[in-house]
Structure formats: structure tokens, C-alpha cells
Task: structure prediction
Amino acid sequence: MSNEIRVVITGVAGKMGKETAKAVLNGAPGLRLVGAVDPREAGVDLGEIIGVPGCEVKVSEHLGEVFASTKADVLVDFTNPQAVLHNAKTALENGTAPVIGTTGLDVVGIAELEKLAARSDKAVLIVPNFALGAVLMMDFARRAARYFKNVEIIEMHHDQKIDAPSGTAIKTAQMIQQQRESMRQGHPDEYEKLTGARGGEWEGIRIHSVRLPGWLLTRR
Ligand SMILES: NC(=O)c1ccc[n+]([C@@H]2O[C@H](COP(=O)([O-])OP(=O)(O)OC[C@H]3O[C@@H](n4cnc5c(N)ncnc54)[C@H](O)[C@@H]3O)[C@@H](O)[C@H]2O)c1
Result:
């Protein structure tokens, strides 16, 4: 029996999906790409989109089409907050473990996936940021919160990002929250002269999202 992990990617024509496909096709050890989904490029040869000739994977319109013709061990999802839950549920129903890179999945959706995963023998991995530096930053922030209770988060992205705050900012706030009690910061009588001036709030932690052209848009 082969030990290779069979991978399907949803959102394969997007920025992150393309990078993931390239990584798998260019020899990530133990991985084999068996399916690719993106309604934007349905029917197109994946190799044409990512510049890897001869990869023999056609882009499908729906994830269901892929599962009808092949089995997969892992689904990597880089789509959007509207599509991700359906894709992850479809994967679990087909015995495939979802690895979710997409951000913006809400708590209700996460709870739904937890329930489904508990009934199957598959795990769900939700990773709002795969960058090692970001993972370490979140862990350092969690540890620092034990000593520094007052915190505000400022995150910066390019102006084509559609969700705010970023998944990384929310995850950072959640991890800080595990370490400190929910608390109100700032002046007790503080008020906003302009709505939103103090940013969004997660359990008392203010989050500010900057969106400007040029910020962190290095991979197109
Ligand atoms: N986890 C991380 O490290 C990380 C890093 C960067 C971005 N992200 C997140 O990943 C997601 C994708 O980012 P991006 O920059 O690649 O976006 P993108 O807009 O470039 O790509 C999204 C792709 O998903 C496709 N899509 C939409 N609905 C679909 C469906 N039902 N099935 C299959 N494909 C579908 C779109 O056609 C598009 O090509 C966002 O939520 C972003 O915040 C995560």
C-alpha cells in the first residue's frame, strides 16, 4: 500500500491555491495532487494556470465532481468565507480531512465542523496563517499577555483583502484571551467622535485593520 497523501485543492486559481499547487507538484515529499477545484477556471488544465507542464490535473467546478471520481486524504482550502464551510463539510462527508487556510470561518461554522469531525475519524485543521513567523508571533503574544494585560492589535494588509480584521489578528486576540481575563481597557467614559475610531473589539481587545496598496502583496 502506498504511503503517499492524496491532496485536493479548492481555490486553486487564487493566489494561495496556486502556490499550494506548485508546492505539491514541485515535489513536496509524500504528497500527490489528485484534484483541483475553482469555478473561475473550470475545465482548464491546471498546468497552464500555474506554469507546470504535464501535471495532468484538470480544474473542476465543484468539489463534489472531484470526489465522484477520486478518493483524497486531504483537502486544502484557500477560497473565501462563503465557500469554505461547504467545502470542508463535503470533504468530511467523503472521508477527507480538511486543512483550512481560508480565513473568516465564524464560530458557528467551526462548531459545526467540530461536531462533524467528532462523528468521523478525520481531524480538521484550521490555520489562519501558515507562516512560521506568524505562528511564533501569536505564541509570543499569548505568553506576553500574562505580564502585559493592556493590548491593542494593529494589522496591515494590501487593499485587495476583502475581510477585516484578518484571521491572524482574530486568532491572536483569541490566544491572548486564553491567557488573561476579559477586561475593559482605556478610560471608562471613553467615547467615539467618529464611529469605528477605536477599531473592532474582541473580548475587550481592540483590533485595527490598515488596508493600503503595496502592503504584503508580494505574491500575485
Ligand atoms: N492561512 C494562510 O496562511 C493564508 C495566507 C494568505 C491568505 N489566506 C486566506 O486564504 C483565502 C484565499 O486567499 P487568496 O489570496 O488566495 O484569495 P483569491 O481571491 O486569490 O483566491 C480565492 C479563489 O477561490 C475560488 N473559489 C471561490 N469559491 C470557490 C469554491 N466554492 N470552490 C473552489 N474555489 C472557489 C475563487 O474563484 C478564487 O480563485 C482568504 O480567506 C485569505 O484570507 C490565508
The mean pLDDT is 93.
